[in-house]
Design goal:
With 130 residues, the protein is mainly alpha-helical. The chain contains four helices and no strands. The chain is elongated, with a radius of gyration of 19 Å.
Length: 130
């Protein structure tokens, strides 16, 4: 007897590598939002300058350009895994191995981008101090 989709918990569980990819994207987006808010606060306090604008632009490039470009292949594999996990579970295992390998390959560079965002946030935070 087939169970409805909602009754099989394994169909809804995403593997660690895919959750990790999502977490890295989320971290970059949250960092950028914080950077944007700090820049906005500096402008509201009449303390904005060109350096801050450049830092905000750099953070935006990380989130909208560099990170998506760097993760294109692993995101494609993640989508393939999601489809296969429902329709072809045997193939999903192989695809998951590819996701894990690709994420392991790119994660140092992703971490470097996140580190740069932390540096940008720290710089803006220091500008907020009186």
């Amino acid at each position: 007897m087939r169970r409805p989709l909602g009754q099989d918990a394994s169909m809804h569980e995403r593997p660690y590598a895919i959750r990790r990819l999502d977490a890295l994207f989320s971290a970059a987006m949250i960092a950028h939002e914080a950077i944007f808010e700090m820049r906005r606060e500096l402008i509201a306090n009449d303390r904005g300058n060109a350096e801050q604008a450049g830092l905000l632009e750099e953070s935006a490039q990380i989130v909208t350009g560099k990170l998506p470009g760097l993760t294109t292949r692993v995101r494609q594999l993640s989508g393939k895994w999601a489809e296969q996990s429902l329709l072809h579970p045997e193939g999903a295992e192989q695809t998951l191995g590819e996701v894990e390998a690709e994420l392991e390959h790119i994660e140092p560079e992703v971490q470097s981008l996140l580190s740069r965002q932390r540096e940008i946030a720290a710089r803006l935070r220091s500008m907020l101090e009186p």
